[in-house]
Amino acid sequence: MSDDEPDVEIESDAEKRAHHNALERKRRDHIKDSFNSLRDAVPNLEGEKASRAQILNKATEYIEFMRRKNNSHQSDIDGLKRQNLQLDQQIRQLEKSPGDPLVVSNGLALLSNPKGPAISAFDEESDSDSDSSEERSHIPPKRLKMGDGSSHEGSASISSVIKLPVNKT
């Protein structure tokens, strides 16, 4: 063994230590940058100074808030899909039975005019100037089938809008 060998080991230990310190500094910088990115991604913390614990707590709160919001939106979407299916079924039902004098759905009535096209409960305006007295006459009483299976007798004026209560089952 020569006297030069211990110096080589010392230099290599110093190089190892310096290399390790550089890697550790790089790792800490990466963590710091990640916390800064997380802080800027949370609306309540954008650009503010905050400790790492505050950043993590606020990020957790924000994630939980967004999950609740997403669940609420998904529930709304599911409800609208169910409503679309019901409306599609009602359209098919209306298309199958075009001769029915009255179709009741969700409280709205559709009257069939024997002398012309159907009159919808959505038609809120009436052209009284162009209506003849025959068209303004009353439809004779009929047995009306309701959405709950019961039937009612009644009459309706062609120029009026009818809103009937429907029991949902």
From TrEMBL:
Q: Specify residue ranges for compositional bias: Acidic residues.
A: 1-12, 122-132
Q: Could you state one GO biological process linked to this protein?
A: positive regulation of transcription by RNA polymerase II
The record's annotation in InterPro entries points to:
bHLH_dom, HLH_DNA-bd_sf
Record-level Gene Ontology MF annotations:
DNA binding; DNA-binding transcription factor activity; protein dimerization activity
Q: Which domain of life is it from?
A: Eukaryota
Residue span of region Disordered: 1-28, 96-169
* Record's keyword terms, sorted: Activator, DNA-binding, Nucleus, Phosphoprotein, Repressor, Transcription, Transcription regulation
Q: Is Flavoprotein a UniProt keyword of this protein?
A: no
Checking Pfam families in the record gives: HLH
One GO location term (cellular component): RNA polymerase II transcription regulator complex
Query: Where in the numbering of this chain does the BHLH domain appear?
Result: 15-66
Family per similarity comment: Belongs to the MAX family.
Q: What is this protein called?
A: Protein max
Q: What is the lineage of its organism?
A: Eukaryota, Metazoa, Echinodermata, Eleutherozoa, Asterozoa
